[in-house]
Amino acid sequence: MADNNNELITLFQKIGLTEQRAKDTAKNKKLAPTLESTIIEAGFIQNVCDKSVGALLYTLASTVNKDASQHLGYLARAISNNKLKSSDQVAAAIKFAENSKEEINEEEFNKACGIGIVVSHEQIATSIAAHLETNRDILIKERYKSLGSLLAKAKQIPELRWANGVDIKNELEKQVITIIGPKDERDLVVKGGKKKDKGSTTNNQKEKRETTPLSPLPDESKKNSMFLEGELSKLHKPGGNKQIKPELMEKHLKETGGKVITRFPPEPNGYLHIGHAKAINVNFGYAKAHNGLCYLRYDDTNPEAEEERYFTSIKQTIEWLGFTPYKITYSSDYFDKLYDLAIELIKRDKAYACSCTPEEMHEMRGGDDGGERKECIHRNRPIEESLIEFQKMKEGRYKEGEVTLRMKMDMQSGNPQFWDLVAYRVLYTPHHRTGDKWCIYPTYDYTHCLCDSFENITHSLCTLEFRMSRESYYWLCDAVEVYKPVQFEYNRLNIYNTIMSKRKIAKLVNDDHVKGWDDPRLYTLPALRRRGIPPEAINGFVQDLGVTTSNSTIQVSRFEKYVRDYLDLHVPRLMIIVNPIKIVLENLPDDYLEEFVVPFKPKDSAMGEHKVPFGKIIYIDRSDFREHDSPDYFRLVVGKSVGLLHVPYSITCIGVKKDHKGNIIQLSCRYENESDKKKPKTHIQWVAESIKHDSPIRLHEIRIYNNLFISENPTAHPNGFLADINPNSLEIASNSLAEIGLLEIFSRALKKSKNEFESVRFQAVRVGYFCLDKDSNLDDPSSNWQDKIVLNEIVSLKSLYK
């Protein structure tokens, strides 16, 4: 065995791990020794192996369970000898090995793992053809919306059990196209039954706009792909997880009817963030995809940090994302049951009362240097003594931190989650639901798996940081002989240029760096909601990323692009002038007034249309004018013309008016309605003055949001994350103008979603996407809304204008 981390890192790189991943793996006290043994058994301690073989060895080491580990050498050699060639075969091998108490029967092993079986392309084609013929009516009716479920079912065809998954997918798609043809407008159905416009532009005069291709949007054909393909598709069916006693599974199946049951178990000590959106989608989505149930369970075992506002916000956020819990439960619902099982654990000599301080526990676990681990002097005290001490803890006869109840696990295990974890601690804080009934509270490590068991959870889905907790999770369920769910870990959703830590966000809020937990610069879900990010876009983004078993971090630009593409399909368009400059059309009479009919979205009649006034005085954005021309500038310049969106004639600048400081305050222009109609090179947005129409609408504020932090990883700043705050993360425009169509958009959206200001979303043409902020003073809708409106920029447009 390797003596130090450097040797392990070198060894792990021989199977194709990158240097960073090798370093991370070497730090994993559970995985590192297992992977080391796997590599040695496979015979690659000196030689470098093929990368695909190395990936399978890593899969084996990271997924092998306790029951199968006695056959680790056999499984490793089966991979190195190219008998096991896919992750599916490795999974089947582990399952076979865990049920093999004695030496493995090679013939039965080969049969169970599909070794030597080659599925030809012709066999795949024949099986897929028969499969599609059986499901032809569904395919014809639902078209590409049925693709995900058809693929999932195809992979379950016995003849294709050991076929290459990519080959199955390619053949299925090929035959589907032959039967129903390629995708067309029928397959681009989105929420509300509206179809994506083909080739639609921002206006009927060919305004330039972002041309980046759309990200894949969450249409029906992709809705369940995260659950029916990839890692989640490999999870066991209810009843497939082995129990310490067979009768436990019999009872479980009798109570559940074989349904998939999941749970989302947040701690009510803060607001949910975008990472939780993935957990919500995974747990609720997996259950829904399998016609199962999902609990919302508040893990309320720490009364010091829990507040009612967090409970309320969590429930509202889940509902906002579009999910409904089967039941809402609390860990505190089970306090009596948890206490009874703690007594049982002590009686079985698997828990003990400990008077060590946290510092002493840390040293006995190896301390900061990871030294020798030692057992606590209280570990082998008589069972009766621990029962008495635990009773005294419950009666409030000890101070906080003076005594704990610890689980008697294995202090010499390579897994830190086996080093006699604390099960109960003394805490004299009233609980929001149980009041003063308890002065001892169970820990997460003790509570979580048992509550999963009580609720008959079939799939305990959690993020990768809980991977080492899986062993202790199973140990505790078996120790008290209760039904044992299966834990599966997947990658978290991490995003650059922000922080997710509740403690760090609290610091930002408390020190007034941001204006509350829902400040739109944060990535809490209340903040994203206030910023105007649609819940459908968040869900679609999460589902598009999918589920893997390795961590990664996403660029902010990728998230914003997904949101931008979603909004492009779903929201109306208006003209907003962020930084206005006044224009007087000198050749028009003072009372000149025209009305132009403007669609809320070109080529989408379902969005409707509205009228906007046009007269002698208009406003354009200051960025659309220059005093001095250049060859690559196509907007307004003195002596040069530019088009106005939705207006038949262009305007030409003939003069500039400045104040005593030299600042431009007004432009004199000519409306070219009497000259030959010459097509301008570009068109710009505008709004007009009209007393009759109460135009323009004067906005109180437009808030433009940039990244809150300068660098991708704020916590890496040598002076701390606060030193990395972007001083320009919020820009405010206070003299902005909007066209009168904005009021109709307000009225429509607020009628559907009363008091949900962020539901008022629209594209400000050539500027970005915006929503109404809750700071808007609109308490009296019958009153004039002028100068009471606050808008938040959701995402910008990627400008291509010259």
Give a description of the structure.
- This protein is an alpha/beta fold.
- 34% of the residues lie in helices and 16% in strands.
- Among the domains are: 1-113, Glutaminyl-tRNA synthetase, non-specific RNA binding region part 1, domain 1 (Helicase, Ruva Protein, domain 3, Orthogonal Bundle), CATH 1.10.8; 121-180, Arc Repressor Mutant, subunit A, CATH 1.10.10.2420; 334-447, Alpha-Beta Complex (Glutamyl-tRNA Synthetase, domain 3); 504-570 and 698-738 and 767-796, Glutamyl-tRNA Synthetase, domain 2 (Orthogonal Bundle); 574-696, Ribosomal Protein L25, Chain P (Beta Barrel), CATH 2.40.240.
- The chain has a seven-stranded mixed β-sheet with strand order 23-20-21-22-14-17-24, with no helix packed on it. A six-stranded mixed β-sheet has the order 12-29-30-31-26-27. It has a four-stranded antiparallel β-sheet with strand order 4-5-6-7.
- The longest helix is centred in the N-terminal third of the chain and has 16 residues, at 165-180.
- It starts with a helix and ends in a 6-residue tail after the last strand.
- Residues 684-773 form the tRNA synthetases class I (E and Q) anti-codon binding domain.
- Residues 572-672 form the Glutamyl/glutaminyl-tRNA synthetase class Ib anti-codon binding domain.
- Residues 7-165, 168-252 form the Glutaminyl-tRNA synthetase class Ib non-specific RNA-binding domain.
Helix tally? Answer: 25
Shape label: globular
State the separation between the terminal residues, measured CA to CA. Answer: 64 Å
Instruction: Give the neighbour order of strands across the main sheet.
Output: 23-20-21-22-14-17-24
CATH architecture of the domain at 504-570 and 698-738 and 767-796: Orthogonal Bundle
CATH superfamily label of the domain at 504-570 and 698-738 and 767-796: Glutamyl-trna Synthetase, Domain 2
**How much helix is in the residues?**
25-40%
Tell me the radius of gyration.
32 Å
Mean pLDDT: 88
CATH class of the domain at 504-570 and 698-738 and 767-796: Mainly Alpha
Any idea of the CATH topology of the domain at 504-570 and 698-738 and 767-796?
Answer: Glutamyl-tRNA Synthetase, domain 2
Query: What portion of the residues fall into strands of 2 or more residues?
Result: 15-25%
What structural category do the secondary elements indicate? alpha/beta
Largest sheet: 7 strands, mixed
Low-confidence segments, given as residue ranges, are 189-221
What's the number of extended β-strand segments? 31
